[in-house]
Write a structure and sequence with these properties.
Strand 4 and strand 5 form a beta hairpin. The protein is built from four helices and six strands, in the order E-E-H-H-E-E-E-H-E-H. It has a domain of 108 residues: 3-Layer(aba) Sandwich (Glutaredoxin). Helices cover 26% and strands 17% of the residues. It is α/β, with parallel strands linked by helices. It starts with 8 loop residues before the first strand and ends with a helix. It has a four-stranded mixed beta sheet with strand order 3-2-4-5, covered by helices on one side. This is Large ribosomal subunit protein mL43. GO terms for molecular function: structural constituent of ribosome. InterPro entries: Ribosomal_mL43, Ribosomal_mL43/mS25/NADH_DH, Thioredoxin-like_sf.
Length: 184
Amino acid sequence: MSNTHLFMKSGHIKTPLQNGLGRFIPQLQRITFKFCKSRGGSRGVRDFIESDLMDFAIKNPGTAIYLKPQRHRSGIMVAEYLNGEKEHLSCHHFNKEEVFKWLSYLTTRSGIPAMRFHKYQHTDYPSIQGVWTPFTHQAPEINVAQFPHEILSKPVNLQPTATDTLLEIFKRTQIKESSEKPEN
């Protein structure tokens, strides 16, 4: 197990402004493409801008798109969200498909930074046995059996149920009462 979770923020799952309950509000406010007009590391960003940027702009009218050419720099996407968070993504030697995939990822995010989630329960003595599931103590033969199976389909509890016992007692008392009745 790595220790990277020690440096992450921690908290609970939050939904920005109850998003999706009334209508969906895209959280990506602005996207900035920084690229070089001649450097090879920015080639994928330039290809994306030439071919697919207009389609993205039409599909996402609530997102402002900025193009910022910079000399001798590799491509970078900077996403700014409604909650004020910024995310920088290096696009060094990406092709236009990779740029599109990462852009769709940034578009669908809420802007809340990745965090380590708290559990709602806490115990001072956590279990060392692992997580229980309904299949924990099942017979392993069930995994490869073809149902209906003669042996596995038999009832496990061969003792009569309480209802069966009561019905048997009732029948015995009925028979006993009918045999004790004097016939006139």
